[in-house]
Design brief:
By secondary structure, the protein is of the alpha/beta class. 42% of the residues lie in helices and 13% in strands. The longest helix has 25 residues, at 150-174. The radius of gyration is 18 Å and the shape is globular.
Amino acid sequence: MPEKYNPPGGGIRGLCAFWNGFIPGKPKFTEKDYPKLNGKVVIVTGATSGVGYEVAKSLLGSTNAKVYLFNRSEQKTIDVIKRLEVEVANEYNKSELNVDYILVDYADLPSIKPAAEQFLNKEERLDLIIHNAGIMAPPLGSKTKQGFDLQLGTNDFGPHLLQKFLDPLIIKTSKRNKPGETRIVWVSSFAHFSAPLGGVHYSDPNFTKTEASPMQIYGQSKALNIIQARAWNSKHPDGSNIISVSLCPGFLNTELQRHGGSFQLKMSQYLHKARFGAYTELFAAFAPEVKTGDHIESFGKVTKSRKDLEDPKAISKGWEFLDENVKPYL
């Protein structure tokens, strides 16, 4: 018999997060509040659809930053840039986009170093990265090219490895900027409340011998995103000017739901548009009240993640687990 997976539950914090997901109120920090970012460079991963697309559009329309889209598909990215040109012109009355793209596949870790090198050969600064790319609840048994659980590999190992290659440049950039202007945003989810105690099912992190639902496995990957946000600064004392922050973008109707089955389809009518998730991510990226290690909920509210993910031992163990698994690809 396979081992049975029993997550600890969310408690009062989980109930509050669930309520806020459905009834969050209106976003108060929007395009009118964003800095202009003249001369700044921003990376948004997973920007071909959903929240990532809306984040890229808002950045291109309301700021003067150079925006890099880190995506898996070249043709989809070319199509997206054409769509952005039309929508930014219509919505923001802005005719020229300062946008470029880099191809990377988080489900194939050897593809990440060449992608990072391509970016580093083009740019001499990095002011903001939003780790938005991810996958939710694919069929059980889905794997990366290296044999990791697909959600663990795509949502955690991929962005962790990319960030390692970009750390020297973003730290160097932060020393030119004011404290807090340089940020690393890790997109987590309410689903982290279904993660194992401490965030990771260490005895079987790829869930090859453990009975669990795709959403519970997704929860593990999203707990690790919170650990990444909380651990980054303690592991990079020379990056003290940088804010590293996690968030749940909201309960949203996006393509991320495509593997969710009939229940997710029924729930979609109660979910919010992707545009609102962009407000959450850009609140984390720009709002002055955000501090390193914070967790943000929809649509711009500083709140609390699950309590055990605040434990320094759990945070350190999670970071070491990530480091160990990406080390062969550095």
